[in-house]
Amino acid sequence: MNELLILTAEQKQAFVTDGYLHLPGFYSGADLARLRDEFHALVTETDGRPKNMSYSFMESPQGYTPDAYNPKNVVGMMDQTQGGDFWFDQFTEPRVVSAMVDCLGPNLDFHNGKVRNKPPGFESTQGWHQDWPYERHSKPELAAALTYLDPTDFEAGATEVIAGSHRGARPTAAGTSVLVQEDVDETNRIVCQVGAGDVVIIHVLVVHRAGHNYTALSRNAIINEYKTAEAIDEWNNRCAFAGLPLARDGRLLQPRVAASKA
Ligand SMILES: O=C(O)CCC(=O)C(=O)O
Q1: Number of compact structural domains in the chain
Q2: Cβ–ligand 1 contact at 208 (below 6 Å)
Q3: In a domain? residue 153
Q4: Which residues span the domain enclosing 248?
């Protein structure tokens, strides 16, 4: 095995065995406070952004209202990576890139970035799926880093994964990109109970789903996806920074943009 950049051998083995890896407290203290402040600006200052940074908003279901942190009920975004220098540094963050190199391999590219929030009353309609049908490549060497801004437990829309389900692509239900829900063996179902600042890395083939949020607080997350340089896009990825080289031979390539202004 190549030398690991940041993960322990146990963490790497957990990713290989389970297809996901929970990294508690990845952001903490002042870094987490800054991340939450920048995220609040992202979901409140929605005008005047680059055109291809797209927002989607959710109508509050009966009995729910938006909270003060996400008052416009932003439920999703694409290409938050174009939100300015902070957001460039966020997806190129050396510890995240290092963890991805350890999980996927020494030659790493960016794939895409998005925001997936679960405002109060959010109901997930997607169900169990693999990300693979949504983002085909020549080989399934991709993984997503989900960064949670808030504590997120089962009744608050936690991500659920089926541990060890990443061994191959599975057939999808006719006319959809999701699995036949009744066929999913939930024996190894794990509810990712996360704290604010936790990161969960999930392999592109791991079966997973988003939960429903029955609480009064929006649960917010950034999802950045990465791939090996050897995995060639067959999906026609037009997302911002798609294919940006992040590491070669285990050496990180991108500068800290915001820090260089100091
Ligand atoms: O938001 C989540 O908890 C999971 C997101 C998800 O399933 C996806 O983006 O494919």
Answers
A1: 1
A2: yes
A3: yes
A4: 9-261
